[in-house]
Design goal:
The chain is built from eight helices and eight strands. By secondary structure, it is α/β, with parallel strands linked by helices. The protein binds D-xylitol-5-phosphate and zinc ion.
Length: about 220
C-alpha cells in the first residue's frame, strides 16, 4: 500500500447542474485529480442524467481528465460520441455487454482509457477473461442510479479479490470505487487496494466542496504515506 498515489474523482452528479463550472473549479482547488461524470439512460438504471453535449461543456472548463461512467444499456452505440465530447477515461458495465472484449478494444482504439464496472451483485469472476486487457476496474459500492446511498461493506473484499486477479494477469491497472464513500470509510477502501476514489455527496452536499475534496485526499494519503 505504501508509496501509491490515490486519485480523488468528485462526482458532479451531486453538484448543482446550473453551476457546473464553479463546482468543478471548487474541487480542482481542493486537489481533485479527475472529474467523474455519471451518464444514465433510464434503461440500465432508473435515473436519467446527461449526454455528450454536457460532457463537451464540462471538458471546456475542467483542467483535469474526465472519468465518464456509462450506466447505459448500449455503450457500444455511444462510446465514440462520449470520447469525442472529451472523455479521457470511459467505463462500461459488464452486465450489459455480451462482447466485452470488443467494447474494450473499441474504447482503446478511440484513444480513451477503458474501464470495466461491476455492480454489487456481479461476481469478480466476470472479469477473469478480460483482466489482462482493462485500463482500470470500477467497483460499485452502491447499486448504480443515484448519489447519496449507503456504502455496501462487502465491496472491500471485492476490491482485494480484484487486485489479486489483476496482479495474476500481470496488469497494474488501478481499481476505482464508486458509491457511499466519505471520511468514515475512505481509509478502508485505500487499504483494500483502491487507487481512484469517487465521491459525490461527501463533496458536493457539504458547504465547502474545496475543503471536502482536500480532506478526502488527505485521508487517502495518510494510508499510503
Ligand atoms: C451512482 C454513481 C455515483 C454517484 C456517487 O450511480 O455512479 O458516481 O455519484 O455518489 P455518492 O458518492 O453520493 O454515493
Ligand atoms: Zn459513477
Amino acid at each position: 500500500m505504501k508509496g501509491r498515489t490515490v486519485r480523488i474523482a468528485p462526482s458532479i452528479l451531486s453538484a448543482d447542474f446550473a453551476a457546473l463550472g464553479s463546482a468543478i473549479a471548487a474541487v480542482e482547488k481542493g486537489g481533485a485529480d479527475l472529474i467523474h461524470v455519471d451518464v444514465m439512460d433510464g434503461h440500465f438504471v432508473p435515473n436519467i442524467t446527461i449526454g455528450p453535449p454536457v460532457v463537451k461543456s464540462v471538458k471546456r472548463v475542467s483542467h483535469v481528465p474526465l472519468d465518464v461512467h456509462l450506466m447505459i444499456a448500449d455503450p457500444d452505440r455511444y462510446a465514440e460520441a462520449f470520447v469525442e465530447a472529451g472523455a479521457d477515461m470511459l467505463s462500461v458495465h459488464v452486465e450489459v455487454l455480451p462482447h466485452l472484449h470488443r467494447t474494450i478494444s473499441l474504447i482503446k482504439s478511440l484513444g480513451a482509457m477503458a474501464g470495466v464496472v461491476l455492480n454489487p451483485s456481479t461476481p469478480v469472476v466476470a472479469l477473469e477473461e478480460i483482466a489482462a486487457d482493462v485500463d482500470f476496474v470500477l467497483v460499485m459500492s452502491v447499486n448504480p442510479g443515484f448519489g447519496g446511498q449507503a456504502f455496501i461493506p462487502r465491496s472491500l473484499q471485492k476490491v482485494t479479490a480484484i487486485r489479486a486477479l489483476l496482479d495474476r494477469a500481470g496488469n497494474h491497472a488501478p481499481i476505482e470505487i464508486d458509491g457511499g464513500i466519505d471520511l468514515s470509510n475512505i481509509a478502508r477502501a485505500v487499504e483494500a487496494g483502491v487507487e481512484i476514489v469517487v465521491a459525490g455527496s461527501a463533496i458536493f452536499k457539504t458547504p465547502d466542496p474545496t475543503a471536502a475534496t482536500r480532506a478526502l485526499k488527505d485521508a487517502a494519503a495518510a494510508v499510503t504515506r
